[in-house]
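Tip: read the tokens left to right.
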């Protein structure tokens, strides 16, 4: 927080000209994660699972959200991993394309832990398909998961987080790409940039930062199901070291934005080894 500056008029002894000295008392918000509460959507596995474990290793309690029964075992394993690190955790299954489910998620987190300090949204769905072949049902599903969920997640986080909280959303580096096939994926993530900017302004009075991270194509099962071996090789060739983005590359950035990076807000950060830029 920044206090009101104390203004002192001092007289220079040699020229007797008045000089204005402004003394600012700058107090950086506490960036220690000890005993903080972190809510991670899609927090059971892959990037979300690693984020859950990382925050626990830094002293936070974790709410692990997962979408379907298929991820229940992984959610339970993540909860156990958090507890083995000496922190508290519990898992919640829900479909976040329904705004009431997002509200319930945050409310259950507050009932269990009494507070929420950091909210990280990793939920997303990937589809690579030509526009000419995309159905209305596919379009609706992609925008529900990638745009609508993000919007109401940010909305609810802005209402439920403690002052000086952090809201972080995972988008995609395809927002800066000129490519085919990903119209509903990149298109569904694109509005999240503006949601992030608008929320950063609207929540600033409470010290809440709102940011987005755009990884490059990540080395996870979500990516490989959409691509041919030849296209995988091409995507690798566009990044440093001829490799895809690793989830281990993204987690430190999430942690930074939740701690020392508190002064960054309203931004989309492309973390992709040079895959795209703008």
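Filled-in amino acids:
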């Amino acid at each position: 927080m920044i206090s009101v500056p104390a203004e002192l008029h001092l007289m220079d002894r040699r020229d007797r000209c008045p000089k204005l000295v402004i003394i600012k008392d700058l107090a950086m918000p506490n960036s220690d994660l000890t005993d903080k509460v972190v809510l991670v959507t899609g927090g059971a596995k892959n990037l979300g699972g690693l984020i859950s474990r990382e925050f626990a290793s830094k002293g936070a309690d974790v709410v692990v959200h997962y979408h379907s029964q298929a991820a229940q075992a992984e959610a339970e394993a993540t909860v156990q991993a958090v507890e083995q690190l000496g922190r508290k955790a519990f898992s919640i299954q829900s479909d976040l394309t329904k705004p009431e489910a997002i509200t319930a998620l945050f409310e259950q987190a507050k009932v269990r832990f009494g507070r929420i300090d950091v909210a990280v949204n990793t939920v997303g769905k990937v589809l690579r398909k030509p526009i000419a072949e995309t159905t209305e049902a596919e379009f609706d599903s992609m925008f529900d998961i990638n745009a609508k969920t993000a919007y109401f997640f940010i909305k609810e986080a802005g209402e439920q987080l403690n002052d000086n909280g952090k809201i972080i959303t995972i988008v995609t580096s395809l927002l800066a790409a000129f490519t085919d096939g990903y119209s509903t994926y990149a298109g569904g993530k694109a509005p999240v940039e503006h949601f992030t900017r608008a929320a950063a302004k609207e929540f600033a009075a409470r010290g809440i930062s709102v940011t987005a991270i755009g990884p490059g194509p990540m080395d996870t099962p979500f990516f490989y199901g959409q691509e041919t071996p030849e296209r995988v090789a091409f995507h690798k060739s566009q990044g440093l070291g001829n490799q895809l983005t690793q989830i281990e590359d993204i987690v430190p950035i999430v942690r930074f934005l939740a701690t020392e990076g508190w002064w960054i807000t309203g931004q989309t950060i492309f973390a992709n080894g040079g895959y795209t830029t703008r």
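The two ends are 32 Å apart (CA to CA). The first strand starts at residue 6 and ends at 11.
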